From TrEMBL:
Gene3D superfamilies: 3.40.50.2020. 5-phospho-alpha-D-ribose 1-diphosphate binds at residues 78, 103, 129-137, 198. Pathway: Pyrimidine metabolism; UMP biosynthesis via salvage pathway; UMP from uracil: step 1/1. PANTHER family: ADENINE PHOSPHORIBOSYLTRANSFERASE, URACIL PHOSPHORIBOSYLTRANSFERASE, CHLOROPLASTIC. One of its GO terms (molecular function) is GTP binding. Its cofactor is Mg(2+). SUPFAM superfamilies: PRTase-like (SSF53271). GO terms for biological process: UMP salvage; uracil salvage. Its EC number is 2.4.2.9. Uracil binds at residues 192, 197-199. It comes from Allisonella histaminiformans. This is Uracil phosphoribosyltransferase. GO terms for cellular component: cytoplasm.
Length: 207
């Protein structure tokens, strides 16, 4: 199983509060934003740097800056929206794409209903979706980007099921997965166990 579990103590502490059923939507949203920002450090750790000559008030020196590689954040509707602001806090110049998928009630396969992406030239794409459950929608979202020519794709979630990680690994071995936790399993309704329930409902306060 190829997955980067970001187990920083602050992330684990905040995730435990998110899992609690009595945590309010307002707190849930805020914590998701904070965790996403903290995870963003790791998910962008390998971004290339170049030397740049600058002048401090004391003397000339050589500093580092990000090379031309740009970032796009791509939430998968609707829960993925909850992870956008945390990454934007870290990378304010990032562009934002959006992917919409629904599950066909008969085939149970994800069906694309929306895709709007920024220019893909020289850009790394980070797909965000808090719950990596069966992996079906993540596999489809990654494929949607690849079909449009995107080469550098990362997948960031909050909680993953082992089944979902395996499914994404098999379909897209080139895509790095970042998560705060890999839980035990999926239940018969496709929920992650112990998980945190329906992330979309908890973010948007629905149900
Ligand atoms: N989606 C969710 O929101 N929660 C799960 O546990 C699984 C999929």
């Amino acid at each position: 199983m190829q997955v980067n579990i970001i187990d920083h103590p602050l992330i684990q502490h905040k995730l435990t509060i998110m899992r609690k059923k009595e945590t309010s939507s307002a707190d849930f949203r805020k914590l998701l934003e904070e965790i996403t920002m903290l995870m963003g450090y790791e998910a962008t750790r390998d971004l290339p740097l170049e030397d740049v000559e600058i002048e401090t008030p004391i003397q000339k020196t050589v500093g580092k800056r990000l090379t031309g590689k740009k970032i796009a954040i791509v939430p998968v509707l609707r829960a993925g929206f909850g992870m956008v602001q945390g990454l934007l806090d870290l990378i304010p110049s990032a562009r934002i794409g959006v992917i919409g998928l629904y599950r066909d009630p008969e085939t149970l396969k994800p069906v694309e209903y929306y895709c709007k992406l920024p220019n893909i030239e020289n850009r790394s794409f980070i797909i965000v979706d808090p719950m990596l459950a069966t992996g079906g929608s993540s596999v489809a979202a990654i494929q949607m980007l690849k079909d449009r020519g995107v080469k550098d794709i990362r997948l960031m979630c909050l909680v993953a099921a082992p089944e979902g990680v395996d499914t994404v690994n098999k379909a897209h071995p080139d895509v790095k997965i970042y998560t705060a936790a890999v839980d035990e399993c999926l239940n018969e309704h496709g929920y992650i166990v112990p998980g945190l329930g329906d992330a979309g409902d908890r973010i948007f306060g629905t149900k």
